[in-house]
Amino acid sequence: MENTKLLLSCPSGLTPSQVLYIPPLLSSSFFLLFIDHQFDLICFWFKLSVILDQSYDRIPHPDFELENSIDKIWDQRVQKNASLYNGKKFRYGGYSLLRGDGSNEDSLVCLRLGLTDYRTFVGTNLSPSWEKFLAASEDDVIKCQHTSSPLGNGAVVETLDKRIVVLQRSQNVGEFPGHYVFPGGHPEPEEVAIASDQSGEELVDRELINNKVSIEMFDSILREVVEEIGVPRTSLFSPLFIGLSRRVLNVRPTAFFFIKCTLPSKDIQQLYSSAQDSYESTLLYTVTMADLESMALKMPGCHQGGFALYKLMVEASKSYVINNPYQSRVSH
Fold first, then answer.
1. Helix (H, G, I), strand (E, B), or coil: what is residue 39?
2. Which residues belong to any copy of the Nudix hydrolase domain (predicted)?
3. Please, how many CA atoms are within 13 Å of residue 45, restricted to the half-sphere of its CB?
4. Among 166, 309, 316, 324, which is most exposed with the fewest C-beta within 10 angstroms?
């Protein structure tokens, strides 16, 4: 899809710091479990972790006038809407593949995060001059080093009757009014009591903070789903991280998750009317894959990427069943 770029895909899904075992019965055709879309690397064992460090914060743009435009744009927005809040956000600074001893068994997917805020997001990524903030580089991280790039999140929620939840955004929201989207928002630094980067912290403290942030990546998407569609948290399975996408327009990155819900579509429709954040959307749909294919064309680029990541996950799960007779017997 030309409106989106896949940065990372994990078709089998990752949970916080979990090693995934790949049974030896699998044929080589299912070994597409983790794909590095920049380097075309394939790994068989992996975990997900986070490093929060100021080295992944935004680098100010050398153009003084362009840099000063951030405050001007923010002031204009506040004058129009005094309720705007300049909250902290996690900034996407790339990811790394780490291996403790060089073997596949120690592979680790590590998200690199800094801190940014909503003011800088409005003044860079959402600026009419957002393209001027981009650096001339094929490397995605370097290209976006002068943008706020807060890490968003989105969830592909599957109902008990195998439908996918899609929302239609309200006409009153700031970005993409009226578009179809998956439930989502942002992981929040305030939820884990983080107000600044941690480079000066002791090693043990940094590890504790990184673990808290890693858990927040998963907790935050559960909160967003509960608040936006109204289902109880107890109806949701643990989220599986399926990858990262970035929309081409204003280079906004989003982490996507797959979540199963124990409720059927009709129950979710009823609960949606009393959802805490239902004002952000006007309609909730529960759709088939065929319907989702057409609706994705009317999604923001980052959510089109979320759909592409979901399709990779579906194809990988089909391949797993086909190429693993033992798993097929267990499933039945």
1. coil
2. 148-315
3. 13
4. 324
Angle at which helix 203-229 crosses helix 265-272, to 10 degrees, equals: 90
Helix residue spans in 189-251 (DSSP H): 203-229
Phi-psi bin for 234: left (phi > 0), alpha (psi -120 to 50), beta?
alpha
Confidence of residue 202 (pLDDT cuts 50, 70, 90): low
> In Å, what is the CA distance from 302 to each residue of 42, 286, 287?
23, 20, 19
For residues 100 and 120, give the distance between their C-alpha atoms in angstroms, rounded to a whole number: 36
Count Cβ neighbours within 10 Å for each residue of 201-218 and write b for 16 or more, e otherwise: eeeeebeebbebbbbbbb
Residues 92, 239: Cα–Cα separation, whole Å = 20
What is the rounded CA–CA span in Å between residue 252 and residue 127?
A: 12
- Residue 12: burial class (beta carbons within 10 Å; 0-12, 13-18, 19+): buried
Residue 201, phi then psi, degrees to nearest 5: -75, 155
* CA torsion through residues 221, 227, 229, 233, sign: positive
Average pLDDT over residues 54-73: 97
For residue 152, list its beta bridge partners.
Answer: 254
Q: For tokens 């890693």, what's the residue?
A: 214
What 3-state DSSP class applies to 1? coil
- Global confidence as pTM: 0.84
